[in-house]
Q: What sequence folds into this?
């Protein structure tokens, strides 16, 4: 069944909408915080949310069946003004963003004036970013470039400045602007090769709780807790009071759409549309404050809750909706049985939901646009399939219908997750893989690998079996966890450079990490590997300290009462999620460039310590000069050195050792909220930007080139085909990777075009999972199509690819990232 005509129009409306900046959240949050300054932070946050949703613009589009806009614009940036990173972009780069050629932003002149004169100035010194900067300085976490003239000249010699300028330069930028930009970049990207962004977020919202209890029930639960001995504790009382305020605000937010829908129904001349609007009015008057009475109301409640939570947090919330095929199914089954709804009507609702979930907007710095994307990047990560809490198959008729909806809308920005298991029926396996005939964008997760990792990470087995996936590829509890699964990570590839240079980083021009010894004096590979591990540990230590500072700021100044109200444990513990109220409290530290680092280590072991064909001194000279006059050796490093992804036990066992070292190092650490840090391997597009800041490496990679994406082998390394590549990955102990990994592979569409070939593809996937694989995200598309989409983006506006964890519309990606996806190995046979 094709996409519903009205949903087709709705999809085109979003895809062709201009990128706009909405200041309403920033305006109303500023007004409220001015009035409540000095009050308890939880109450300040709740009142700001309430003030916003009671005053912001509400709209209903012509073709939608359920209401709930996130901004006053069709595609509008929702500014998280209290966090600060977006404030910096608007302060420094708005003129550039509205003049850029690709997808320029638009802002009303009066809004621009209010933003510049009233909103941004008031928040200076008060944001999460501002507090981070001050506390980083006290903690010694500020990194700076060398000012030594000799060091600067060496940087210019060893780095690819042409590539760096092309990817990151801002037109007409002054020297002062560039200097400030570098300083600000180092704040979120310590030494350029570690990330600690201002965001927490990254969780599965408690939609199931909202559907079972309604915000009315959540409100009553908070009042009961308040009256049950918690009034004497100021922090507990404030949190519970803030929960009540937020529940009332959600009721009023939905009520505004009920009024608007009723008004539009009275003016509507088309009887069919008037009936739809009247139903919308009834739904919004009832949910999500009360529990849904039908499948249509359950979908409406889900979307209104999602929109409200997004408004409460602002862009880069990364609020996943979790296992919606499970918590919506009782409503669907009941309505189908009673004849209240048809599968065709339900499919239309699901298509609309996926369109709305996949069309949000983020704003990136001008330079970052070339290595990232903005449309649909605030992933809501729907999850379907898998096992239930007892370990039996949970795929149901609604799961199948959702896959139809996903295929019909062609994914959009939905980083869609399909859970599979040895208990999954063959019909669902086939249905899942058939989606790739329509679109890329789905990631496949194997429960037999994921669930043990979650249990080892600290979850009860029933909760682990109920996991949803967040953001890119991060499995976590379904409405019971505050896991903060992304935004804090290190570069394993940069650690190779630091080991070779005794702690120095070429781009920084000075020592960043510890002195681990002159590598020319190392007698064995084990000595080199030990030094490498010390550099990696230093980077993990640095990120951990920075995350503690960030989390402390949120706990003290910017709690999230609405989000917390939906999460299991927060009301029971009378604590906000930022203070550890949720049932599970995790943190995360991820690693990028896994294959690049591994290939470098394997090359050093092979050529330097085993064959003794190359000395460290000779290697360092080649790298310093970016392989100038050393092309023969570079080709040997590229083509003759052992590589990850070729089912080579010797290299793969090194991969196992590196992965285990990183994972164990991360997971032994505790967050401020008491839970463990969880390790993961995914790069969310940062592998392209990261490569710009790293010099030439021992695997033959030249300065400035991208490092490997996520957990995948390096581009071009999978010389023995997909089976061998997946066999290498499957040898690594997935039970250690509790925060997930991303494995990207690109296949020609012809490989899935008939049932016989689809069965072979299924055999490849099953074989990988049975061997120990956790995740796989195929891009089923030809390079010919990708290259044509680069030249003619308007002809491919709904073309979706999986990037390095997340899904993205190809036309919205920067060209360097598009080029990296094209450069990936294209498998032409299984």
A:
């Amino acid at each position: 069944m094709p996409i519903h005509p009205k949903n087709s129009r709705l999809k085109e409306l979003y895809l062709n909408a201009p990128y706009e900046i909405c200041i309403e959240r920033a305006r109303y949050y500023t007004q409220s915080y001015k009035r409540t300054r000095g009050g308890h932070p939880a109450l300040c946050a709740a009142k700001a949310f309430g003030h916003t949703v009671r005053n912001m613009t509400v709209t209903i589009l012509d073709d939608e069946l359920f209401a709930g806009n996130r901004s006053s614009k069709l595609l509008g940036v929702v500014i998280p003004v209290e966090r600060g990173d977006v404030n910096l972009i608007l302060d420094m780069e708005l003129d550039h963003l509205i003049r850029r050629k690709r997808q320029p932003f638009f802002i009303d002149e009066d809004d621009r004036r209010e933003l510049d004169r009233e909103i941004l100035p008031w928040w200076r010194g008060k944001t999460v970013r501002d507090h981070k900067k001050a506390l980083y300085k006290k903690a010694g976490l500020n990194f700076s470039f060398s000012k030594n003239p000799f060091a600067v000249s060496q940087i210019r010699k060893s780095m690819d400045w042409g590539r760096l300028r092309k990817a990151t330069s801002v037109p007409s930028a002054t020297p002062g602007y560039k200097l400030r930009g570098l300083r600000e970049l180092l704040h979120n990207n310590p030494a350029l090769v570690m990330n600690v962004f201002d965001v927490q977020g990254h969780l599965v919202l408690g939609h199931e709780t909202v559907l079972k209890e309604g915000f009315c029930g959540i409100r009553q639960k908070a009042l009961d807790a308040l009256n049950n001995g918690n009034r004497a504790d100021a922090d507990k009382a404030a949190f519970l009071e803030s929960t009540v305020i937020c529940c009332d605000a959600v009721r009023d937010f939905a009520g505004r759409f009920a009024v608007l829908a009723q008004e539009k129904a009275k003016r509507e001349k088309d009887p069919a549309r008037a009936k739809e609007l009247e139903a919308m009015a009834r739904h919004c008057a009832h949910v999500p404050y009360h529990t849904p009475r039908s499948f249509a109301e359950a979908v409406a409640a889900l979307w209104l809750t999602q929109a409200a939570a997004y408004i409460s947090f602002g862009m880069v919330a990364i609020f996943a909706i979790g296992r919606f095929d499970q918590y919506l199914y009782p409503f669907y089954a009941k309505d189908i049985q009673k004849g209240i709804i048809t599968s065709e009507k339900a499919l239309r609702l699901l298509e609309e939901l996926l369109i709305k979930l996949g069309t949000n907007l983020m704003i990136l710095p001008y330079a970052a646009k070339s290595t990232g994307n903005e449309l649909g990047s605030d992933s809501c990560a729907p999850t379907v399939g898998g096992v239930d809490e007892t370990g039996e198959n949970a795929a149901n008729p609604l799961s199948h219908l959702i896959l139809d909806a996903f295929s019909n809308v062609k994914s959009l920005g939905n980083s869609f997750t399909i859970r599979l298991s040895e208990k999954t029926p063959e019909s669902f396996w086939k249905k899942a893989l058939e989606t790739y005939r329509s679109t890329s964008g789905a990631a496949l997760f194997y429960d037999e690998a994921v669930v043990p990792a979650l249990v080892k990470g600290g979850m009860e087995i029933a909760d682990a079996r109920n996991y949803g996936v967040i953001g890119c590829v991060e499995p976590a509890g379904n409405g019971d966890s505050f896991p903060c699964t992304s935004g804090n990570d290190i570069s394993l590839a940069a650690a190779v450079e630091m080991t070779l240079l005794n702690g120095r980083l070429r781009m920084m021009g000075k020592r960043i990490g510890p002195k681990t010894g002159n590598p020319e004096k190392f007698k064995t590979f084990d000595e080199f590997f030990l030094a490498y591990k010390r550099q990696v540990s230093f980077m993990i230590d640095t990120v951990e300290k920075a995350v503690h500072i960030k989390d402390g700021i949120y706990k003290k100044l910017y709690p999230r009462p609405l989000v917390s109200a939906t999460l299991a444990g927060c009301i029971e513990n009378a604590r906000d999620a930022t203070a550890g109220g949720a049932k599970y409290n995790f943190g995360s530290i991820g690693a990028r460039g896994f294959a690049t680092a591994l290939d470098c280590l394997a090359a050093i072991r092979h050529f330097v310590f085993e064959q003794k064909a190359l000395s460290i001194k000779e290697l360092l000279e080649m790298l310093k000069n970016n392989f100038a006059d050393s092309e023969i050796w570079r080709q040997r490093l590229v083509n003759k050195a052992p590589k990850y992804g070729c089912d080579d036990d010797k290299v793969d066992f090194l991969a196992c050792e590196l992965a285990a070292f990183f994972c164990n190092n991360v997971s032994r650490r505790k967050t401020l909220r008491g839970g463990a840090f969880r390790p993961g391997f995914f790069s969310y597009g940062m592998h392209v930007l990261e490569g710009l800041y790293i010099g030439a490496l021992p695997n033959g990679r030249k300065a400035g080139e991208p490092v490997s994406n996520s957990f995948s082998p390096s581009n071009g390394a999978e010389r023995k085909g997909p089976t061998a590549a997946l066999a290498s990955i499957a040898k690594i102990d997935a039970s250690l990777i509790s925060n997930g990994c991303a494995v990207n592979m690109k296949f020609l569409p012809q490989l899935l075009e008939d049932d016989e070939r689809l069965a072979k593809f299924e055999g490849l996937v099953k074989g990988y999972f049975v061997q120990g694989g956790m995740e796989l995200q195929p891009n089923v598309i030809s390079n010919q199509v990708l290259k044509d989409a680069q030249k003619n983006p308007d002809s491919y506006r709904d073309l979706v690819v999986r990037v390095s964890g997340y899904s993205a519309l190809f036309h919205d990606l920067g060209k360097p990232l598009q080029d990296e996806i094209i450069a990936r190995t294209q498998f032409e046979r299984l």
Notes: The chain has 33 helices and 23 strands. The mean pLDDT is 95. The longest strand covers residues 587-592. The radius of gyration is 26 Å.
